[in-house]
Write a structure and sequence with these properties.
The structure holds 2 protein chains of 2 kinds. By secondary structure, chain A is mainly alpha-helical. Helix content of chain A is 73%, strand content 1%. In chain A, strands 1-2 form a two-stranded antiparallel sheet. The N terminus and C terminus of chain A are likely disordered. By secondary structure, chain B is mainly α. Chain B has 11 helices and 2 strands; from the N terminus they run H-H-H-H-E-E-H-H-H-H-H-H-H. Chain B has a two-stranded antiparallel sheet. The longest helix of chain B is centred in the first third of the chain and has 30 residues. The chains are: A mainly alpha, B mainly alpha. Chains A and B meet through helix 6, helix 14 and helix 17 of A and helix 3, helix 4, helix 7, helix 8 and helix 9 of B.
Chain lengths: 352, 288
């Protein structure tokens, strides 16, 4: 009874398959339902909903790059802050929609520079670089403001209701999902999954790994910058310490990991519980947030390394497909080659 | 001249802290992002001894360093080893250890916040001036530099002249081959990790003699140590020392000539240049 099903290979770039049409319909229903939230809720509940859509957009855009490549980008805060500053700095110079575009362009340009410098070499260097990026930009901003003689903060005043912020952020999150879905079907996405599984193999397949990684990093960071520009007026006052708070990067990473990084909708599953739990923590343990964030990190690494979606899928396989494991190719394509690798290789014991 | 001497004095102390990370990353192959928190813990406990009992920071190190050794050994055994055993590849281990040490760094910041509070901390120890080439410098900087230099030399000799040091260097070159010549790779890695933590804590204790600290600064020191290690080349002690001096000089130059708020930017410029020109570091071996 151990017949292994032939993995279903979908060639990238083909038309819609029946399953995809169904997923598309489900997504449309969810988006419409999400769009109705401000009509039903207001006040505190709407604020929570805004947090949820904002983090969904950020965590999913983080996943676009870090999910397939396994490079942990800690630069969300840097790009988010740049977006905020673009909106705040240009508020008297240009109409708001132009600023949002400008934030995207500036974020993309900076991501391209950072990506070209760091992504050609080992992944660890990229992680380190991205870790300090927010602090670096903060120092430069503070210095610039000091040199230019302006005050340390900037006011952004635009009349917007909470519902409008919600819709804007929802639109951004949907855009991230659409782009992510499109990348998943494109040659680029295919190349990235190979890179994530084994970079050497990817190089030998003739994939320009550095270019693929830089392009993805640029896309992912652009969304973070736009997110910052969208949120800036809601904060009203932008100053370096707040705009470039590295906490944001870590929260985004945790939410994405909690949800699971091998599905596009994984972060969504992580964001909702995390935002709610974090809200409770912020109310009841305001001075222990750092400690608790650390504990969250450890719990995810040691207890649920594949995230909630990983747990759900494992349970699903055990419940419905007893006796058959997903084919090795399918698992490899999903980007979770772990189980396969374990079957194929003897366990290393003295590896340090 | 001022810049050169202050830069060299700072670089000497940086060398010690980066050497700790070098042992952890070069030998034990763990990218320890909680390294800066160990440094801060070292600085804070030194301060605490000085404030509480007026124990000289240099003597306090004799208590702080063994404690850091034991703590880091326990961290490796309890937290890191399961990840090493679980990892299917070096890449996966890197991701896992980065995330785990991240968690650890947040937890230590949280704990230290609870114990010491969020204020800035400094104390004045040996703050009388000393004259070098007719210019005045803080005696504490010079003493910290000398102590750090002594520790660096001791560590270097130990790594290069003793059997145990040889074993660590073997593991650093190739863990699998080291295992084949009957080196216990797991315990050697644990030892290197613990020693690295102890050395970092010593660096923290010495830095606290002349720098102002607060709990959240750990990540900045982690970054500096990482940049030094990468600049010098992973697995090369000479490179680490040279790179530490370069960073010390660059930071001091930027702080005096442009703006003290831009020290990290200076470090990042160095980092960028290395990545673009010589990604394997000054003394590193070029790999495929």
């Amino acid at each position: 009874m151990s017949s292994i099903e032939a993995p279903k290979l979908v060639r990238p770039g083909t038309g819609l398959v029946a399953g995809e049409l169904r997923n598309l319909l489900i997504s449309a229903v969810i988006i419409i339902a999400a769009g109705c939230v401000p009509l039903v809720f207001d006040g505190y509940a709407l604020q929570l909903a805004i947090s949820i859509v904002m983090y969904t957009g950020l965590a999913t855009s983080w996943l676009l790059f870090s999910g397939p490549t396994n490079y942990i980008a800690l630069s969300t805060a840097a790009f988010f802050g740049i977006g905020m500053y673009t909106a705040a700095g240009g508020i008297d110079l240009a109409p708001y929609p132009v600023l949002i575009l400008a934030a995207g362009v500036i974020g993309a340009a900076m991501a391209a520079i950072v990506g070209l410098a760091t992504l050609r070499v080992s992944g660890v260097y990229f992680v380190i670089f991205s870790l300090g990026l927010a602090e670096l930009v903060r120092q430069i901003m503070t210095w610039l403001q000091h040199v230019l003689g302006t005050m340390s903060g900037l006011y952004v005043t635009i009349e917007r209701t909470e519902a409008e912020y919600y819709w804007q952020l929802l639109l951004l999150a949907v855009a991230v999902f659409v782009v992510g879905w499109w990348i998943g079907r494109s040659r680029l996405g295919f190349a990235l999954r190979i890179i994530g599984n084994d970079e050497l193999v990817a190089v030998h397949c003739g994939i320009n790994t550095a270019r693929a990684k830089v392009v993805l990093f640029v896309i992912s960071s652009t969304f973070a910058a736009i997110g910052g520009a969208v949120v800036a007026p809601r904060w009203g006052y932008v100053e370096p310490v707040v705009a470039f708070s590295p906490f944001l990067s870590f929260q985004v990473v945790i939410m994405a990991l909690l949800g699971g990084t091998h599905r596009l909708w994984g972060p969504l599953v992580g964001v909702i519980p995390f935002v709610l739990i974090w809200e409770l923590i912020a109310i009841y343990f305001p001075s222990q947030t750092t400690l608790l964030l650390g504990i969250c990190f450890l719990l995810i690494v040691y207890v649920i390394p594949n995230g909630i979606t990983g747990l759900i899928e494992d349970a699903w396989h055990r419940r419905w497909k007893r006796g058959t494991t997903p084919g090795p190719v399918q698992r490899a394509l999903d980007g979770s080659a772990g189980a396969t690798a374990r079957q194929l290789q003897p366990q290393k014991t003295n590896d340090a | 001249m001022d810049i050169v001497i202050i830069g060299l004095l700072l670089g000497g102390t940086y060398a010690l802290m980066a050497m700790g990370l070098q042992l952890q990353y070069g030998v034990a192959r763990i990218m320890n992002l909680a390294n800066g928190e160990i440094l801060i813990a070292g600085a804070f406990s030194t301060f605490w001894f000085y404030a509480g009992t007026h124990l000289s920071p240099l003597l306090a190190l004799f208590l702080v360093v063994p404690a850091a050794f034991v703590l880091n050994w326990a961290i490796y055994r309890v937290l890191i080893l399961p990840l090493v055993r679980r990892a299917k590849s070096q890449g996966k281990l890197e991701v896992d250890s980065i995330l785990a040490t991240f968690g650890l760094s947040f937890i230590s910041v949280g704990i230290m916040l609870a114990i010491f509070g969020g204020e800035y901390l400094d104390y004045s120890y040996l703050s009388q001036p000393i004259f070098i080439f007719g210019e005045r410098y803080g005696l504490n900087r010079v003493v910290a530099f000398l102590a750090s230099a002594a520790l660096c030399v001791g560590l270097y000799l130990w790594l290069h002249k003793t059997r145990a040091g040889l074993a660590l260097r073997a593991v650093s070159v190739n863990p699998t081959a080291a295992g084949l010549v009957s080196i216990n790779v797991v315990s050697a890695s644990a030892f290197a990790f613990a020693l690295g933590g102890a050395v970092t804590a010593a660096g923290g204790g010495l830095l606290s003699m002349f720098l102002t600290f607060d709990v959240s600064l750990g990540v900045v020191f982690t970054l500096k140590a990482l940049i030094i290690v990468i600049l010098g080349g992973v697995g090369d002690i000479r490179g680490t020392i040279v790179a530490a001096f370069i960073l010390g000089l660059a930071e001091t130059a930027v702080a005096t000539l442009i703006d003290p708020g831009l020290t990290l930017a200076a470090a990042y410029v160095l980092f960028m240049v290395v990545l673009l020109v010589r990604p394997e570091g000054l003394f590193g071996r070029r790999t495929a």
